[in-house]
Write a structure and sequence with these properties.
Strand content: 25-35%
Helix content: 25-40%
CATH architecture of the largest domain: 3-Layer(aba) Sandwich
CATH class of the largest domain: Alpha Beta
Bound molecules: adenosine-5'-diphosphate, magnesium ion
Number of strands: 14
Distance between the termini: 40 Å
Shape: elongated
Strand order of the largest sheet: 6-7-8-3-9-10
Length: about 325
């Protein structure tokens, strides 16, 4: 399979600060790559280089066979970009925004009108087509921005944190739209801080931190890479976790840990899930520990992230606010 996007040895320095330190990416045509990393990891910098908005210090990028650094103009024709620096005019309606973009790309009036109408329908914005974009919710504004990136039907679409700041409904709507794009054979480079989003949408995931790739693979491969199942035990409130930690250390494979969300939740990687759980519960009982709940689960991408970076991934999205909307529409 040929790669629709090929990034080799990307380095970006700002003065003496190196923000990208040798990023390699390959996205087979028709697949979704999730570029996953915490705030400041280098996601937007990577995306800006791939989409010709920024020149790297070192490295090369090819998009749909075009060398992005040598021929940025042709590369741009093959890429749709939608993200944090949205280009939506708040004073125009959704329809007018898209028609304007289509006209800028050289379509005649009739073509531009048809394309705008069909995109509004595809992205679930038909009902709001004739409202000023300034009145759109954050999720709608994001989808309108994405629609603008799709006007020319580019083979490669780049989405920079498409759901950051959206409420759960807005996020689901965006996921559906991205799913439709992929079903149509579009190649997608998607950045996200949300493990769940990468898990849901991406065929392959590349995890970056401090400008470096720290892991890559499918969600399943990444989960498998950190070992077996995880045993989680919840203690009655106010109990000293130390005796329980000792028991988990005995029955588990790695270092047991206290979950960040509560003093009473402990977990450890285990070899033989259910059997180990039974053994652990017996020993906890012997040690006089009062257990409220226990379970074994397959590792999540959160576990992967924690084991790779030593710190938990970014928490849940903040609820949609007017600030976000302003940022998108300004
Ligand atoms: N123009 C710039 N000058 C100096 N540092 C920058 C500039 N743009 C980004 N950075 C730094 O580069 C790092 C990566 O930023 P960015 O690519 O925006 O990360 P992400 O999108 O993953 O949150 C951050 O530490 C950021 O502060
Ligand atoms: Mg960013």
């Amino acid at each position: 399979m040929s790669a629709a996007v090929e990034v080799r040895g990307l380095v970006k320095n700002y003065g003496r600060t190196r923000v990208l330190d040798g990023i390699d990416l390959e996205i087979p045509a028709g697949t979704v790559l999730g570029l996953l990393g915490p705030n400041g990891a280098g996601k937007t910098t990577t995306v800006r280089i791939v989409t010709t908005l920024l020149r790297p210090t070192e490295g090369s990028v090819r998009v749909a066979g075009v060398d992005v650094l040598r021929d940025p103009a042709s590369a741009r024709q093959r890429i749709g970009l939608s993200g944090q620096y949205a280009a939506v005019d708040a004073n125009l309606t959704g329809f007018e925004n898209l028609r304007m973009v289509a006209r800028l790309y050289g379509m005649n009036r009739r073509e531009a009108t048809d394309r705008a109408r069909s995109l509004l329908a595809e992205l679930g914005l038909e009902a709001a087509a004739d409202r000023r974009a300034g009145t759109y919710s954050g999720g709608m504004a994001r989808r309108l921005d994405l629609a603008g990136a799709l006007v020319t039907r580019p083979p490669v679409v780049v989405l920079d944190e498409p759901t950051t700041g959206l409420d759960p409904r807005g996020r689901l709507d965006m996921w559906r739209v991205i799913g439709d794009l992929v079903a149509d054979g579009t190649t997608v480079l998607l950045t996200t801080q949300y493990l769940e989003e990468a898990d849901m949408l991406a065929d392959r995931i590349v995890v970056i931190d401090h400008g470096r790739v720290i892991a890559r693979g499918s969600a399943e491969e990444l989960k498998a890479s950190i070992g077996g199942d995880r045993l989680t035990v919840t203690l009655a409130a106010g109990q000293d976790p130390k005796p329980a930690l000792r028991v988990l250390e005995e029955v588990g494979l790695g270092e047991p840990r206290l979950e960040p969300d509560g003093q009473e939740v402990l977990s450890v990687v285990v070899g033989e899930g259910t059997r180990t759980m039974v053994e652990a519960l017996r020993r906890l009982d012997d040690a006089g520990v009062c257990v409220l709940d226990a379970g074994v689960h397959r590792p999540s991408l959160d576990d992967v992230f924690l084991s790779l970076t030593g710190s938990p991934a970014t928490g849940d999205a903040e609820p949609e606010t007017d600030d976000v909307r302003e940022e998108i529409l300004s």
